[in-house]
Amino acid sequence: MKHRYQRVRGTYDILPEDLLLYLKAEETARTMMKLRGYKEIRLPTFEEAGLFIHATGETTDIVEKEMYTFKDKKERQLALRPEGTPGVVRAYLENALNTAFPVSKFCYTGPMFRYERPQGGRRREFFQSGCEYFGNPHPVADAELILLMNDIYASLGISGLIIEINSIGCPECRANYRSQLLAFLNSNKTQLCADCNTRIEKNPLRALDCKLDREKFVNLNAPVISKALCADCAGHFAALQSLLQEAKVPFTVNPYIVRGLDYYTKTVFEAKVQGSDAICAGGRYDGLIKLAGGEETPAVGFAMGVDRTVNLLRAKTAPEAKTPPVFIVIQQEEKIIKNAFLLANSLAGNNIAVAGPYPDKSFKAQLRLADSAGSKYTLILGENEINSGSVTLKDMAGKTQETVKQEDIINRLKSGV
Ligand SMILES: [Zn+2]
Ligand SMILES: [Zn+2]
């Protein structure tokens, strides 16, 4: 029995035309991050599951419901990474990158994995480009990242970016806020989903991030943490806002953003466009590096959803001409095939994209292919051309043709391609 395999639910093939958009998004992010001193690292796609349970947070949706965990042959409990930050922190400590200089900046790009319902553009394997800034407690670091995020999208030509920021304070602010929120949740229990009812016991702050009840919290005027900040956190948040205003970055304060991760402190932020989910999000996580076994080190970072960014690029980008500009058509003869093969290589080596030769097709069939391919030029190589060391160059639009010496063809094409 022949079995035709299909891709696993929630995974996607990124086909060549789409991949160009992925590369554009990733390369733009990488270039702009590097300009600000973020150094790229590439980390394993699986780690000990404990790293994420510990860092991302035991009661987060990501760890509780969405993490791909498995045992390897030695019975180690491993997980496909659901997000990038814990791995960066682990690598930072494991490689003692903290000893060289008190401030470090890293960027990364790669696949992440979450077992989510594959709807509304959610994928079980998805791509993120992110950056992390360690060692700077001042809001200039938070502001730098928000600016960087804004600049990446501007540079990708995505307009109408909506940046929302909030502060979720430090553990001290949260202790104050917790009782207010608990009172609210308890008095509105019946209106909230089953998950939120569990969250009341386990992690009330997480309720604000509920995908089902998010609207209700706004409508019911749920208490917000930004009104319960301690003096230090309030000062930090005010300074961040003033830096962003200074830099003329448009933003709004949304007191209901808490982000679905346990490790955030103080600043959290998201970017989206009208009608989209968050396409890029991040925040400060001053407690995480210590929690992972390091010295107390302030940190802030964000991750850009490459797939969602590509969706926006796809909507605005007209398909580019992806046809190689030169198509080589030959007579089916051994020495001509060899000559054409070498010619194709030398064109490609000079950055001229080329299709052919296709010696298994008849000369006529090749000419038909050249017609339908939409290339700008066809190069024809036959007996006459080989004998005179030349090639026939046909301009497909103007329907004109000329004979060009083989040694001149690259210059000729470069001036006209
Ligand atoms: Zn605080
Ligand atoms: Zn809920």
What would you say about this model in short?
By secondary structure, the chain is an alpha+beta fold.
Write the layout of secondary structure elements.
Blueprint: H1 16-35, E1 39-40, E2 46-48, H2 49-55, H3 61-64, E3 69-71, E4 77-80, H4 85-94, E5 104-113, E6 125-134, H5 139-155, E7 162-167, H6 171-187, H7 194-202, H8 204-207, H9 214-219, H10 231-246, E8 252-253, E9 265-272, E10 280-284, H11 288-291, E11 299-305, H12 306-316, E12 326-330, H13 334-349, E13 354-355, H14 363-373, E14 377-381, H15 383-387, E15 390-395, E16 400-405, H16 409-416
Parallel strand pairs: 1-5, 7-8, 12-13, 12-14
Antiparallel strand pairs: 2-4, 3-4, 5-6, 6-11, 7-9, 9-10, 10-11, 14-15, 15-16
Helix pairs in contact: 1-5, 1-12, 5-10
The site of one zinc ion has 7 residues, from α7.
